[in-house]
Specification:
- The complex is a heterodimer of chains A (43) and B (530).
- Chain A is mostly helical and 43 residues long.
- Chain A has 1 helix and no strands.
- With 530 residues, chain B is mostly helical.
- In chain B, α7 packs antiparallel against α8, α8 packs parallel to α10 and α13 packs antiparallel against α14.
- The longest helix of chain B is centred in the N-terminal third of the chain and has 36 residues.
- The chains are: A mainly alpha (43), B mainly alpha (530).
- The interface between A and B is medium-sized, with 27 and 43 residues.
């Protein structure tokens, strides 16, 4: 696969992992708020 | 570093034609896509506003059926909020954030592509409802049950469209947070970031926290309609007012999602044309954080009339008033930046100065609406319509226009036509006040919002408002022409473009290379937040 541009930075694999980790955490936060509101009102 | 990677750094290779735009992971391309989408939807939503104003030009039913009129108000709002202002400011973010912080691209470029391409799909789904036999949604953009549950075939289309818009926004917000927190060039400390970057960082957190609440609310609507739940159905033990609480818990932060990036744009433009650093940078950052925090504590001021306990009314009233403090700090700082500056009034500055004055008008009418006992008179009248159009049109939209004129030479490499820009500004600023100011009088006199017909006592101000609306609508064609003309050619723009501009984006060529900052810039040389 053609490298994406931010892979050209020194230490970019580390940076990429850091970006993905943060994205997953924020995604989980958003998903929890979504599910939390619905479940809180359902029960 | 592999040869393939080195090759990519030094050449602006990208696919051509449709493939470039469909598969792009480049922040500038995606920024352009967002901005073009926003402009297109501005004209779609604007055409609906023209239908609304034509119908309201005189009392009695003129051109459209009441059901279709209600569809127009609903769709106009959904399009302008989710299809114009939000994608427009995300377009600015995509184009500018990496260049402002010295990053080569957004943190998650493939997700960036997805965030955009979900949007045309969502809005096609929404707009197609107008062609259904039972018509589009007509229950208002706030989608209050039980009215919204009476929507026929269009209902699931709208709910899915709103979900997709939410997914797009959340993915975009995550990308922006990851970019700003992880991708800054060495030396670009948080308190050195341009204010536009700060306002977007805070906006992105607001998006992650509030959009899932909207998604939850509309999911509950969907299950009430199709899966036998009774979240909002009193007959099944539910409560319709619950929806209003949940919706506005999203809805008020949403207001700041729309306006904070606009504050960021204005904070970039005014120092440039006042030729002075931004006054009170740190206080601007803290004021933005305060506004974001308070935005989660004021939602029920949208529903003072539902019959809340007095203590709740008082709490929400005073919490609402308290937002005036950090907002006042911002207005003061913009004025102080201009104070004794060597100001010139090119089109971006004209729109910025108009923003400061007219957004303040919207802010003051907001304070009036925030007074609980007074709101009982104003609630659901044209006073509310006047208020939020001052905040969103002369606020958010004027700021975006200021930003377009400000960065267009950087984006295209050509200067725009200043005469046409000024013509666009003066026509817009006069007509927008003719359009919206009389709506204050209509509201105070008791004209309800969302009605196709009205008592004859409201005829004069409605006619004047409609005339202002038509001129404002037509004026926006000048903006379109200025943009097309600028993209196609014109006087070559310098790298700095504006004499007083400073910040990393102005150190790049105009237009910037396809891949910028492949080696991190030196921050010390640039006063990043002047």
């Amino acid at each position: 696969m053609k490298p994406i541009v931010n892979n050209v930075r020194p230490g970019s694999e580390q940076l990429s992992r850091k970006n993905h980790r943060l994205a997953i955490v924020l995604g989980l936060v958003a998903a929890s708020i979504y599910a939390g509101f619905i479940l809180a009102y359902y029960y | 570093m592999s040869e393939a990677v080195m090759h990519d750094i030094h050449h602006d290779h990208h696919p051509e034609g449709l493939r470039r735009w469909l598969f792009t992971t480049n922040h500038k391309d995606i920024g352009t896509l967002y901005l073009c989408f926003s402009l297109f939807m501005f004209f779609v939503g604007g055409a609906m506003a023209m239908v609304i104003r034509a119908e309201l030009m005189a009392p009695g039913l003129q051109y459209v059926e009441p059901q279709f009129f209600n569809s127009m108000t609903t769709m106009h709002a959904l399009i302008m909020v989710f299809g114009v202002v939000m994608p427009g400011t995300v377009g600015f973010a995509n184009w500018l954030l990496p260049m402002m912080i010295g990053a080569p691209d957004m943190a998650l470029p493939r997700m960036n592509n997805w965030s955009f391409w979900i949007l045309p799909f969502a809005f096609t789904l929404l707009l197609l409802t107008l062609f259904l036999p039972s018509g589009g949604p007509a229950g208002g953009w706030t989608m209050y049950p039980p009215l919204m549950l009476q929507t026929e075939t269009a209902f699931p289309f709208v709910i899915f469209a709103v979900h997709f818009m939410g997914v797009s926004s959340i993915m975009g917000a995550i990308n922006i947070i990851a970019t700003i927190l992880n991708m800054r060039a060495p030396g670009m400390k948080l308190m050195k970031m341009p204010l536009f970057v700060w306002t977007w960082l805070i906006t992105a957190f607001l998006l992650v926290a509030s959009i899932p609440v909207l998604a939850g609310a509309v999911t509950m609507l969907l299950t009430d309609k199709f899966f036998g739940t009774s979240f909002f159905d009193a007959a099944g033990g539910g409560d319709p007012v619950l929806f209003q609480h949940v919706f506005w818990f999203f809805g008020h932060p949403e207001v700041y999602i729309l306006i904070l990036p606009a504050f960021g744009i204005i904070s970039q433009v005014i120092p440039t044309f006042a030729r002075k650093p931004l006054f009170g940078y740190a206080s601007m950052v803290y004021a933005t954080c305060s506004i974001a925090f308070l935005s989660f504590l004021v939602w029920a001021h949208h529903m003072f009339t539902v019959g809340m306990p007095l203590a709740a009314e008082l709490f929400f009233m005073y919490a609402t008033m308290s937002i005036a403090v950090p907002t006042g700090v911002k207005i003061f700082n913009w004025l102080a930046t201009m104070w004794r500056g060597e100001m010139t009034f090119e089109t971006p500055m004209l729109f910025a100065v108009a923003f400061v004055m007219l957004f303040t008008v919207g802010g003051f009418s907001g304070l009036m609406l925030g007074i609980a006992p007074v709101d009982f008179q104003y609630h659901d009248t044209y006073f509310v319509v006047a208020h939020f159009h001052y905040v969103l049109v002369t606020g958010a939209v004027f700021a975006m226009m200021s930003g377009v004129y400000y960065w267009l030479p950087k984006w295209t490499g050509h200067m725009y036509d200043e005469t046409l820009g000024k013509l666009h500004f003066w026509l817009s600023v006069v007509s927008v006040n003719v359009l919206f100011f009389p709506q204050h009088f209509l509201g105070l006199a008791g004209m309800p919002r969302r009605i196709p017909d009205y008592s004859t006592q409201f005829a004069e101000w409605n006619a004047i408002s409609s005339m202002g609306g038509f001129v404002f609508g037509a004026s926006q064609l000048i903006l379109l022409w200025v943009i097309i003309k600028c993209v196609r050619g014109g006087e070559k723009a310098t790298n700095q473009v504006w004499e007083g501009a400073s910040g990393l984006e102005w150190t790049l060529s105009s237009p910037p290379p396809y891949h910028s900052f492949v080696t991190p810039p030196t921050i010390e040389d640039v006063t990043s937040h002047s």
